[in-house]
Design a protein that fits this description.
The protein contains ten helices and no strands. The protein is mostly helical. It has one domain: MetI-like fold (Orthogonal Bundle). Helix 2 crosses helix 8. The longest helix is centred in the first third of the chain and has 37 residues. The two termini are 41 Å apart.
Length: 277
Amino acid sequence: MFSRPAPALSLAYLLPLTAAALLAAPPGLDPLAQHLARMLEGPSRDHPFGTDELGRDILARAIWGARTSLTTAAGAVSLAAAIGVPMGLVAGFFGGWRDAVLMRVVDLLLAQPGIMLALALIAVLGRSQAAALVAVGLTGLPTFARVARAQLLSLRRRDFVTAVEAFGATPGDTLFRTVLANALNPILTQMVVLSSVAILHEGALAFLGVGIPPVTPSWSKMLRRGKEYFHESPTYAVLPGVVLTLTILAFDTIGRALSAVLEGHERPLVRPAANLP
């Protein structure tokens, strides 16, 4: 997969970005330190990408913004998968009224524009990074539910699933040890692809002034503020805008490359259940 230029470049970009997000700003670059005498300065030796309207270093804030966006995206995608995948598996496996009820919930979520649903949840939950994580996560829940249900329906009548059931496997064993084990490839692919969507939604919330609290550095909040000071400091919004765009494109590129690699290379995986004879 990474022998091709686009996925390889995307990975080469995301690895140091993730490392920078984990390590946060280098010593001497405090994203919250204010120097009002040096506000809206252009690039310099001390501040490679200049300063904002409060004299804070833009590079330091962009690095901390990576931590905000990546942690929010990772948490949101994990939450969506943790709820959506079991929901889809149960709906597809048992069918009947369970399938009807759960899929109507999914349809209800799909009927709402993602950003509008996130805004409504922020209004209820309040403004915090945790609230933004939950709001963005619920917008991705329907995708995981539908993928899991579709995979279960395609695997439900396969010979290896029928054999496991014939040996007395419980519904839980069949769902999570057999079906889920063979449905992981598309689910993992969706997790990577939806990471880019989660970053986009988190960025949209921050750009609109909701979600992430004001004190927390965020790429989209920097874009929002940089727009207001474009004439005084044209370089203000350049770094966060470029980093946000490249990060979304990198996750999307890797997700699509992963999907292409995994497609057609799936082999049935049967894990023995503990209660089988």
